[in-house]
Automatic annotation (TrEMBL):
Main location: secreted
Coiled-coil blocks: none
Location in the cell: Secreted
Name this polypeptide is given: NodB homology domain-containing protein
Domain NodB homology: 56-242
Keywords per UniProt: Signal
Domain of life: Bacteria
Gene Ontology molecular function, alphabetical: hydrolase activity, acting on carbon-nitrogen (but not peptide) bonds
A GO-annotated cellular component: extracellular region
GO biological process, one term: carbohydrate metabolic process
Length: 242
């Protein structure tokens, strides 16, 4: 789970930890590539999630749709032949992360429709992150369904992508039963949370509540390898908390 790919903002800037330097991303991808792993978008991961394919793969996601991912992450992904999914806030395409403004978080450009198409044409994927970066669990079922369905329709009208927009990410990791029902009804194939952990193929796997491994500015490549190859993250997941 990545957010922004950019040089670090000044010390003390809120949410600075979610800005990963391009060189750090390159080291992360390089380390996993050297170990024989291939980075995939959520669509690329689907057959592995269904147990139809086996192999050394990991999913790469970028939340929010920042332009700096097109500028800095795309060349890295292209270099390694990896694909990824960028979860876009459908109602803020071409704007900035306005949902963060009142928390004093720096306003950063988000990709516009043309840039999203360039992202897709370069082999990457667009997923949905609602219309307004909504905190879904605070909304009623009808409002949630609107955020979840409309964002899919809006993004599909903006971006031509094989199979349409099939993957969803819950903003702030906020969800409840109504969110999951709406995601299923809207026809998404997968949905990711901010729950920590790796996806384990067992009877309990819920593809509409997938855990992820957080990657921050200070995550060094050996640490990322550790997070991906060991049960470290799984053990920190609240799913296993007593
Ligand atoms: Zn987000």
């Amino acid at each position: 789970m990545y957010h922004q790919t950019e040089e670090a903002p000044p010390k003390g800037a809120p949410m600075r930890g979610l800005v990963v330097a391009p060189e750090t991303l390159r080291r992360h991808m390089g380390a996993l590539a050297r170990l024989g792993y291939r980075g995939l978008s959520m669509s690329g991961l689907e057959p592995y999630l269904r147990g139809e394919k086996r192999g050394k793969v990991f999913g790469i996601t970028f939340d929010d749709g920042y332009e700096n991912n097109l500028i800095h992450a795309l060349p890295v992904l292209t270099h390694f032949g990896f694909s990824s999914t960028c979860y876009v806030v459908a109602g803020m395409v071409g704007q900035t992360n306005r949902w963060d403004a009142e928390k004093g978080i720096a306003q950063i450009p988000l990709m516009d429709a043309e840039q999203l198409q360039s992202w897709v044409n370069a082999g990457q994927e667009v997923g949905s992150h609602t219309v307004s970066h909504a905190m879904l669990a605070t909304l009623n079922a009808e409002q949630q369904a609107a955020e979840i369905q409309q964002s899919k329709v809006m993004l599909e009208s903006m971006v031509q992508q094989p199979g349409g927009v099939r993957h969803f990410c819950y903003p702030y990791g906020s969800l409840n039963e109504a969110s999951v029902t709406a995601v299923r009804t809207a026809g998404y194939a997968t949905a990711t949370t901010t729950e920590r952990g790796r996806v384990v193929l067992n009877g309990a796997l819920d593809v509409l509540r997938l855990p992820r491994v957080l990657v921050s500015r200070t995550t060094a490549w050996p640490q990322l390898v550790w997070k991906c190859m060991t049960a470290y993250e799984d053990e920190r997941s609240s799913r296993y908390a007593k």
